[in-house]
């Protein structure tokens, strides 16, 4: 497995579609009603084969430089995913993430975000990393805050979710802030 060690507990790994899909799908199934509220794609993932197909696509995108999708591993166990959804020409990228219910409340995701930021700034030449979260998604906003992101503002009706458009907060972290620790 090709992975990046965030700390002694968390690794970010390139997906192994046939191996990781069943575990990821199991996490989605166990928490579908919660995850689908803010992640519309969850409702289109109906089987482990759907998840495997998505992981194969993610790996294709990695190969073409479109995105970076990684499996979050906690103590060797599949816990969720984190990604740079696309790399923009202005040396920025936006982050997406989700975590299985059993792994929440353990400071996993903000540490995974910090690891992804390290990769983005040091390996991908990014200058700005962005997190967008529906304003009512308290957990996601807390991850951005705890990972040291700056709240840039709120975009009206910026996020289309299953129940309609939601205002979304846009958070950012600049390379100079990451390096200096500001």
Explain how this protein is built.
- This protein has one domain: Aminopeptidase.
- It is an alpha+beta fold.
- The mean pLDDT is 93.
- The longest helix has 17 residues, at 48-64.
- The N and C termini lie far apart (34 Å).
- The relative contact order is 0.14.
- Helix 4 (108-122) links the parallel strand 5 (92-99) and strand 6.
- Helix 1 crosses helix 3.
- The protein is globular, with a radius of gyration of 15 Å.
- It has helices at residues 17-30, 32-38, 48-64, 108-122, 138-146, 175-180, and strands at 3-5, 10-13, 68-74, 77-87, 92-99, 128-134, 150-161, 164-174.
- It has an eight-stranded mixed beta sheet with strand order 1-2-3-4-5-6-8-7, sandwiched between helices.
- 37% of the residues lie in helices and 35% in strands.
- GO terms for molecular function: acyltransferase activity.
- Keywords: Acyltransferase, Transferase.
- Residues 25-176 form the N-acetyltransferase domain.
- This is GNAT family N-acetyltransferase.
- InterPro entries: Acyl_CoA_acyltransferase (IPR016181), GNAT_dom (IPR000182), Ribosomal_N-acetyltransferase (IPR051908).
Topology:
Blueprint: E1 3-5, E2 10-13, H1 17-30, H2 32-38, H3 48-64, E3 68-74, E4 77-87, E5 92-99, H4 108-122, E6 128-134, H5 138-146, E7 150-161, E8 164-174, H6 175-180
Parallel strand pairs: 5-6
Antiparallel strand pairs: 1-2, 2-3, 3-4, 4-5, 6-8, 7-8
Helix pairs in contact: 1-3
